[in-house]
Here is the input.
Amino acid sequence: MPYSLLSQQDVETLVHFDLFKDTVGRDELMKLFADGKVRELKHREILISVGAPLDSFALVLDGAVKLLKHSPKGEDIIMHFALPGDLIGALLMNQTQQKSYPLSAKAMGPSRVLVLPKKTFSQAWLGNLTIMHKINQLLYRRMHNIQDDKIMSTSPLKKRIANLLLRHLNEGKTASNLKISLTRQEIADSLGVAVESVIRAMRELQAEGVTEKLGDKQPELIHVPKLVKLLDLN
Amino acid sequence: MPYSLLSQQDVETLVHFDLFKDTVGRDELMKLFADGKVRELKHREILISVGAPLDSFALVLDGAVKLLKHSPKGEDIIMHFALPGDLIGALLMNQTQQKSYPLSAKAMGPSRVLVLPKKTFSQAWLGNLTIMHKINQLLYRRMHNIQDDKIMSTSPLKKRIANLLLRHLNEGKTASNLKISLTRQEIADSLGVAVESVIRAMRELQAEGVTEKLGDKQPELIHVPKLVKLLDLN
DNA sequence: CGTAGCCTTGAAGGTGATCAATGTTTGTGG
DNA sequence: CCACAAACATTGATCACCTTCAAGGCTACG
Here is the structure.
């Protein structure tokens, strides 16, 4: 596995993450990154597998990582998309009952993560109130998103997709695109539905002009007002 | 609204909650309860409404409180059942983006909660690392449960119900009953399905001997091994 | 050049939703 | 204490939405 030490440039990236915004002092920061190694992930490479020992946690530097579990039927169910600045597994470090990772982490496109040993968490993170508050906020936001999905569980699929897309939009005015490019499969796995259903629903969204296909490579353009109107409808 | 001060007996209950287990020193504890008032809730009485100002949080002393939102269609969706020792809204106190309660809290049967002003949180809770870790754990466990539900979202309703029941069982060996008595409506609201569907599914569970109706008042008995077997099946 | 992953389409089928009606229980106020 | 309303439970009939299965296509990559 390609591991490397934290470069000066990576540190620059790190300090601009919201997570460390309120932490002052360079050496205070460096303590948080103690024994950290940068790991390069290829598309679809697995960072963590369900059941792996809880000996480290990670921070996304670049790219994106999806957190997922397997349903009883064997399908993937995606719980969260971790973008740069997001933590993976940190919430587990002080969970004494838990002995292994409850979910897997898989790279979406080439990505880079900072891997930190549990020891660093115990020594530098756990006692740091500022950081603990930030972790709390991340955890809260993650829960909020899952709850948001749950609320929509009784809505027709088209609305559920619209809601999901809306959450992953770049701060756009009228027309925008997603922060991460999601495959139909990933949308399906996020919502716990069949791919075919997603495809059919998105075909309709396109017919209604909510999304627009640009190039063949390009991720589709999304018309935000139309999307919002679709959600308000009914 | 019937408010009263914290009695000596209530304090005894409080100190035995896991939340305060690692907090030593009586005066340290009393600081955490500063300006706390006990509120008695009647069955179905509302403690918090969506959109209410975030000026206080609560701790369940007795009974049970369900946390819920309204789906776009207007149905209730239950996010969590708060039992004695569980916090309500505490996770929001240091969430600066959030300005009002995102969900409602409603008593299930006569209940008692300790209501604490936000000020107490800022002054005594926020700076207390032990407590912050405990809150983290509560938050984590709550998220874990929601994720657990999400995993099951592709399973047939009978299994989803079985999974839900399993989570709310008393530590029982072979036959057990629920910690809280849930109406069919509440099960439906938890899973985001129609009541009628729950009724039909539970009728089958009873036919299969997984649950057993005792008295007409009594909550039904659940045969744990059968329940687990049902979940493993397929 | 072959495989793996994703996308697409169509046909058939099932699970749960909806609607409507009725029963039961509980609590409320006259 | 009775009457009535509100919340919950139940049943049956019908229907829509989503799943499943099968088959085929496209693109990337070793």
